[in-house]
């Protein structure tokens, strides 16, 4: 059976005066209902643009989009904007990083959630308001009937994100996309919001895509991980495989920049040196080679000359990575990542 969400060779290119920005360049993945995919990468890796393309938000812009996005048997890249608009907010829904950019300051939280429901359902105002209150309750807002009458600025940051989640779930979406849903929140609230997304996912049975720069965010909630660099996939597999036996030096770098709890100190160690590559002129060979501390292990300067293909990691079912070292690692636990 085909996957519920099947993204094939997705490309999103933006023509600019300086050249074509290849934000997403050949990304493929699948996701079934009830499962969570974490798309991980630094800013500029193409992860957010990928999610916007899933929502069809490129339509009517100058972005050049190719490839296929199959959602429940329907192809979205070629779908006319009018039909996409009917899916957006109902079948496909998004939680944004900053709820204040998604919630209107002049309308009460309850009214906005009710309105999001009424866009897709022929119900009375009263029914929509009841639905909004019910959703606020389900996302853990205390005294939901009273708080529904508050304006967004009367909510704390964590409560606003809960309200945003209530709004994105109000139409029971089959696909929920969360772009850096916890970045603006403090660590305790982050954990609560991730738990909430996990619980609601179980309850609603949606497919969830979480976009993040922080592998730690997806480690606890995702089933699969897709690591992006320079608009491309560089590693993809189950959370278990990717975290236990990460194959790509960039993934090792992301792992090492996860928070480490040392005594009572929450430290971020070893951010990956260097900057993300230009999406107009990606470095030749392996796009990561200018920053890669391991390129010396690959003979003949291949890293700067030859682009590594995504290859299956030996000994796993569906774990793939694009690094010339993968062929050398063959089996066994990867010890380099821990060094
Ligand atoms: Fe590093 Fe070479 Fe692997 Fe690229 S292909 S990640 S430069 S070792
Ligand atoms: Mg982003």
TrEMBL record:
Ranges in a coiled coil? none
Q: How does it sit in the membrane?
A: Peripheral membrane protein
Boundaries of every ABC transporter domain copy: 7-255
Task: Please list the GO biological process terms of this entry.
Answer: peptide transport
Q: Which CDD domains match?
A: ABC_NikE_OppD_transporters (cd03257)
One of the entry's Gene Ontology molecular-function terms is: ATP hydrolysis activity
State whether keyword Transport applies: yes
The terms describing its cellular component in GO are: plasma membrane
Where in or outside the cell? Cell membrane
Write out the entry's keywords from A to Z: ATP-binding, Cell membrane, Membrane, Nucleotide-binding, Transport
Sequence similarity: Belongs to the ABC transporter superfamily.
What NCBIfam families would the database entry show? oligo_HPY
PANTHER family documented for this protein: DIPEPTIDE TRANSPORT ATP-BINDING PROTEIN DPPD (PTHR43297:SF2), OLIGOPEPTIDE TRANSPORT ATP-BINDING PROTEIN APPD (PTHR43297)
What is the name listed in the Swiss-Prot or TrEMBL entry for this protein?
Dipeptide/oligopeptide/nickel ABC transporter ATP-binding protein
């Amino acid at each position: 059976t085909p996957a519920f969400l099947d993204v094939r060779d997705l490309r999103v290119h933006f023509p600019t005066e300086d050249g074509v920005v290849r934000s997403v360049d050949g990304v493929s993945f699948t996701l079934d209902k009830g499962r969570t995919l974490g798309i991980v990468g630094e800013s500029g890796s193409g992860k957010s643009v990928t999610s916007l393309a899933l929502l069809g938000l490129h339509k009517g812009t100058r972005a050049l989009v190719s490839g296929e996005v199959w959602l429940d048997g329907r192809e979205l890249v070629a779908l006319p904007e009018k039909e996409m608009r009917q899916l957006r907010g109902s079948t496909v829904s998004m939680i944004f990083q900053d709820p204040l950019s998604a919630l209107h300051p002049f309308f009460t939280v309850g009214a906005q959630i009710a309105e999001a429901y009424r866009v897709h359902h022929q119900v009375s105002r009263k029914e929509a308001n009841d639905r909004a209150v019910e959703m606020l309750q389900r996302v853990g807002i205390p005294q939901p009937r009273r708080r529904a009458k508050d304006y967004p600025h009367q909510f704390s940051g964590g409560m606003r994100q809960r309200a945003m989640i209530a709004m994105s779930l109000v139409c029971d979406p089959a696909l929920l996309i969360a772009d850096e849903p916890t970045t603006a929140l403090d660590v305790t609230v982050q954990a609560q919001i991730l738990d909430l997304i996990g619980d609601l996912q179980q309850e609603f049975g949606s497919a969830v895509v979480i976009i993040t720069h922080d592998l730690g965010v997806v480690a606890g909630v995702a089933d699969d991980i897709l690591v992006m660099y320079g608009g491309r996939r560089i590693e993809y597999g189950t959370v278990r495989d990717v975290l236990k036996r990460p194959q790509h030096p960039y993934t090792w770098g992301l792992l090492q920049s996860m928070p480490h709890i040392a005594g009572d100190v929450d430290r971020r160690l070893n951010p990956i040196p260097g900057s993300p590559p230009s999406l107009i002129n990606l470095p030749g060979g392996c796009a990561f080679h200018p920053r890669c501390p391991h390129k010396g292990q690959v003979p003949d300067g291949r890293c700067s000359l030859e682009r590594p293909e995504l290859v299956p990691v030996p000994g796993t079912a569906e774990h793939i990575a694009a690094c010339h070292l993968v062929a050398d690692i063959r089996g066994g636990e990867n010890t380099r990542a821990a060094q």
